[in-house]
Amino acid sequence: QVQLAESGGGLVQAGGSLRLSCAVSGLTFSSYTMGWFRQAPGKEREFVAVIHWSGSRTYYADSVKGRFTISRDNTKNTVYLQLNNLKPEDTAVYSCAADSARWRTSSNRNDYDYWGQGTQVTVSS
After folding, report:
1. Between the CA of residue 14 and those of 38, 55, 61, what are the distances in Å?
2. Which of 4, 39, 44, 102 has fewest C-beta within 10 Å?
3. CA distances from residue 119 to 5, 54, 57, 66, 96 in whole angstroms, order as listed
């Protein structure tokens, strides 16, 4: 059974930081490119960041570039998202996702095969 379990969300003030984690089981983690997406109430899910299976390539949405950092530890089957200088517009449910075509780093949610249920990030002020 494939499982993706996010953690680390919470309530922070504008300008604060959070570190999200996504623990993956039930698949060969290094065979998957991993991405982060977010969805605010009433809005469509949007791409945030993606990391190649090897960790050698990353790509970010323009809205988070310079503030967020994606990383992965293939020995722990975990992908991370460091969120710095948070803004109220970053408020959303953040979900991690796995793409079996590990050669690519896609921003298209339709390219991802497995999804976690998400962790809530709320930024006040």
Report:
1. 18, 29, 19
2. 44
3. 9, 25, 24, 22, 9
